[in-house]
Design a protein that fits this description.
Strand content of chain A: over 45%
Helix content of chain A: under 10%
Helix content of chain B: under 10%
Radius of gyration of chain B: 14 Å
Number of strands of chain A: 11
Radius of gyration of chain A: 14 Å
Distance between the termini of chain A: 37 Å
Shape of chain A: globular
Distance between the termini of chain B: 41 Å
Largest interface: A-B, 25 and 26 residues
Order of helices and strands of chain A: EEEEEEEEEEE
Number of strands of chain B: 11
Shape of chain B: globular
Largest sheet of chain A: 7 strands, mixed
Structural class of chain B: mainly beta
Oligomer: heterodimer
Largest sheet of chain B: 6 strands, mixed
Order of helices and strands of chain B: EEEEEEEEEEE
Chain lengths: 115, 113
């Protein structure tokens, strides 16, 4: 069974630009969550999508947005990039049923560097 | 607000020297506690899920336990390949009724041959 894939793996942008990251979850998984990981803050929750709907959102500015497609693939967009947005962006998928407690499986991440 | 605190931040062990990592948490409506292992430059790798106090799970040299306030990851006779950052996370109900996961900042383990 293929794991979670993320593209691109590495990205270099300059301040003010925007970026789109992509995530393909494990086949059959309907929930996709995004996290930002930095050395100082650890893993910070961005948002979660389930069946094309954003169900939960972390404390990030509106410059961070996302969406999920009918095949469960998800994209994350960051507009007007700032130096502080440099981080490893991780996508995690889980099956998630209403009455179940599902562990998340992570992709390898996209390393974003903002210059 | 849900909080997860891991200690120590870093741990250096000799090969074969057993030890424990701690994860203390405050959360309303705990639905599950997860342990992950993360190698440099990679995404976290799932290890265990614990659902209720008193539960224990084992995998090779690792054993995870859970109480009402904390979880321990015991490492027995570690090997250099166990070197990694170990992350703890809790899953709780959000105000919207859906899953919300909060991660600790991790314990960086180094096992010296």
């Amino acid at each position: 069974k293929a794991g979670v894939t993320q593209t691109p793996r590495y990205l270099i942008k300059t301040r003010g630009q925007q970026v789109t990251l992509s995530c393909s979850p494990i086949s059959g998984h309907r929930s996709v969550s995004w996290y930002q990981q930095t050395p100082g803050q650890g893993l910070q929750f961005l948002f979660e999508y389930f069946s094309e709907t954003q169900r939960n959102k972390g404390n990030f500015p509106g410059r961070f947005s996302g969406r999920q497609f009918s095949n469960s693939r998800s994209e994350m967009n960051v507009s007007t990039l700032e130096l502080g947005d440099s981080a490893l962006y991780l996508c995690a998928s889980s099956f998630f049923g209403e009455a179940s407690y599902n562990e998340q499986f992570f992709g390898p991440g996209t390393r974003l560097t903002v210059l | 607000e849900d909080q997860v605190t891991q200690s120590p931040e870093a741990l250096r062990l000799q090969e074969g020297e057993s030890s424990s990592l701690n994860c203390s948490y405050t959360v309303s409506g705990l639905r599950g506690l997860f342990w992950y292992r993360q190698d440099p430059g990679k995404g976290p790798e799932f290890l265990f899920t614990l659902y209720s106090a008193g539960e224990e799970k084992e995998k090779e040299r690792l054993k995870a336990t859970l109480t009402k306030k904390e979880s321990f990851l015991h490492i027995t006779a570690p090997k250099p390949e166990d070197s990694a950052t170990y992350l703890c996370a809790v899953q709780a109900r959000s105000s919207g009724g859906y899953q919300k996961v909060t991660f600790g900042t991790g314990t960086k383990l180094q096992v010296i041959p």
